[in-house]
Amino acid sequence: MKPTGTDPRILSIAAEVAKSPEQNVPVILLKLKEIINITPLGSSELKKIKQDIYCYDLIQYCLLVLSQDYSRIQGGWTTISQLTQILSHCCVGLEPGEDAEEFYNELLPSAAENFLVLGRQLQTCFINAAKAEEKDELLHFFQIVTDSLFWLLGGHVELIQNVLQSDHFLHLLQADNVQIGSAVMMMLQNILQINSPVIRSTATKLLLLMAESHQEILILLRQSTCYKGLRRLLSKQETGTEFSQELRQLVGLLSPMVYQEVEEQKLHQAACLIQAYWKGFQTRKRLKKLPSAVIALQRSFRSKRSKMLLEINRQKEEEDLKLQLQLQRQRAMRLSRELQLSMLEIVHPGQVEKHYREMEEKSALIIQKHWRGYRERKNFHQQRQSLIEYKAAVTLQRAALKFLAKCRKKKKLFAPWRGLQELTDARRVELKKRVDDYVRRHLGSPMSDVVSRELHAQAQERLQHYFMGRALEERAQQHREALIAQISTNVEQLMKAPSLKEAEGKEPELFLSRSRPVAAKAKQAHLTTLKHIQAPWWKKLGEESGDEIDVPKDELSIELENLFIGGTKPP
Questions:
Q1: 76: left (phi over 0), alpha (psi -120 to 50) or beta
Q2: Mind spelling out the 3-state secondary structure of 502-523?
Q3: Which candidate, 156, 226, 154, places its Cα nearest to that of 184?
Q4: DSSP string, 429-453
């Protein structure tokens, strides 16, 4: 409800604010300062002006202007600082009447919060300013804002708790700049002197709560130069007051022993955090490697198990083979004894002793033959490596000699002509004397020109025949050397060839011959060996291993038709 008897100056300002654009409102509101300054302090007229300003919502307009960006306000920080003075003076000593709850619960806390926000903005601008004049001007505006806040808190003590608990006020206290910090501490000192018991208790509880909840604030109170004498100042306070217990706790937190414990606790927490991160990293790393480790373990277990199964199967096969060999030997022994008994029944009693003697001789021959074969095979295997090395050395020597001969031949062919050695007069006389003596001793028969030409033609023909035969002989020699090298290679392959148990599918193909006579001879030897092996034992009694067995030509030709000859195409 609008009051009656309103000051016409307030009405004109309110009307101007309502009609003017937004950017002109801050300049219009500055006119309130002239009205407040002219009116004497503590008078009823001033109270009436403040009530009219509140009723026409000019205080709310001031709050809206202060909440805007300072760069958009006409006049900048000068206008803002004057508006803070107007707002603080209007709020102090005002009787809101019916809107008291809204005024005390909303408008006053909002005004105090806006003052703190402006203080932080001025602090940031002051730190970023480069010129000294600009810094002095910003410091002056900061002091005006803090004085306005102090004036507001002096008129409304209940706002002190809100200010001390504000985060903006905490950031102002943490300023590293000496000038800003001294201005804030001066304001804090003035606030504490407003109402000592209540304010000191609230400030002490607030500091204690901040120190207990945030270790960084406690470290700042201990290390910062701005709060160097805080513990000593708190120790001088009276201990018989209501907040003596909180004061003792705060002094105890600021003591060096507690600070050391706090530092140790902080280091302990940091160490625990590092250990937790490290253990987590190691655990995650092990978990990542676990699948590969399990796969490797399974692979090794399966390979070991397969090897064990192969070894067990091999041992079982060896045992079965030994058992089969033993059974075969027993069966052969039994058959041989049965044959001996049957032979004894057939042989005449007078020839039994002769038969035994013949059997013993044949047995001795067979034993000697097997023993000599075993001994020669053993010697051959022992000398095999040395024989291979000898053949390799011979091959290398042959290649080296060929290479050297080629080099000498090239030198002779491409050697430059050096010319004849010059003869001295004495040497020339001596040679002429020898020629004359030789001609004198060997006088030749006279030969006609026709005969000498025929003789020369015969000599040229024989020389041409010689050179042609020499080229053919060289080609034949090269062919012989190639055949010898091929034979040496085949012999070396045969000596290095594996046994039949170790041979694979492709290795026998290396020993196929391109020569039909060689293949026929090999086939004949193979058939001979097969017939000798398949023949009954009594046919082998009188035979030696070197004896050859005749194979019919029909069987050989039939076998040769199906024989694959290396290097030829099938029809």
A1: left
A2: CCCCCHHHHHCCCCHHHHHHHH
A3: 226
A4: HHHHHHHHHHHHHSPPPP--HHHHH
* C-beta neighbour count of 112 within 10 angstroms: 23
Quick count: other Cβ atoms within 10 Å of Cβ 121?
18
**CB-based contacts of 248: which residues, under 8 Å, 6+ apart?**
239
CB 23 within 8 A of CB 76: no
Token pair of 242 as six digits: 């209501």
Output DSSP code: residue 3: P
Give rounded-to-5 percent helix, strand, coil for the chain.
Answer: 80, 0, 20
* Amino acid occupying residue 63: L
Sign of the Cα torsion 133, 139, 143, 144 reads: positive
The Cα–Cα gap between 143 and 97 comes to 32
Up-side HSE of residue 550: CA atoms within 13 Å toward CB? 3
Nearest CA-CA partner of 74 in 29, 15, 36: 29
Helix (H) or strand (E) holding 364: helix 352-413
Cβ within 8 Å of residue 180, ≥6 positions away: 123, 126, 139, 142, 172
In a structure prediction context, what are the per-residue pLDDT tens digits for the chain, which is 571 residues long? 455 567 788 778 878 778 887 777 777 777 777 887 887 776 778 778 777 777 877 778 787 777 777 777 777 888 888 878 887 778 887 777 777 778 777 888 888 888 888 888 888 888 888 888 888 888 888 888 888 887 777 777 777 777 877 887 877 877 777 788 778 777 777 776 665 555 566 666 777 777 666 666 666 666 655 555 555 555 555 554 545 566 666 666 666 555 566 677 888 899 999 999 999 999 998 888 888 888 888 999 999 999 999 999 999 999 999 999 999 999 998 988 888 788 777 777 777 788 788 888 988 999 999 999 999 988 888 888 888 888 999 999 999 999 999 988 888 776 665 655 677 888 889 989 998 898 888 776 667 788 888 888 998 998 888 888 888 888 889 989 988 888 888 788 778 777 767 777 666 666 666 667 777 787 888 888 888 788 887 777 666 555 555 545 554 444 444 443 333 344 3
Would you give the end-to-end CA distance of the chain in angstroms? 130
Residue with tokens 């000699």: 401
| Buried residues in 57-81 as b, exposed as e (16+ CB within 10 A) | ebbebbbebbeeebeebeeebebbb
HSE toward the beta carbon, residue 160, CA cutoff 13 A? 28
Residue 182 burial (CB count, 10 A): 12
* Cα(305)–Cα(311) distance, integer angstroms: 10
Name residue 561's amino acid.
Answer: E
- Assigned token pair, 42: 């503590």
Q: Phi, psi (5° rounding) for residue 131? A: -85, 150
Q: The whole model's pTM is what? A: 0.38
For residue 298, give the nearest of 288, 310, 290 by alpha carbon: 290
Strand, helix or coil for residue 541: coil
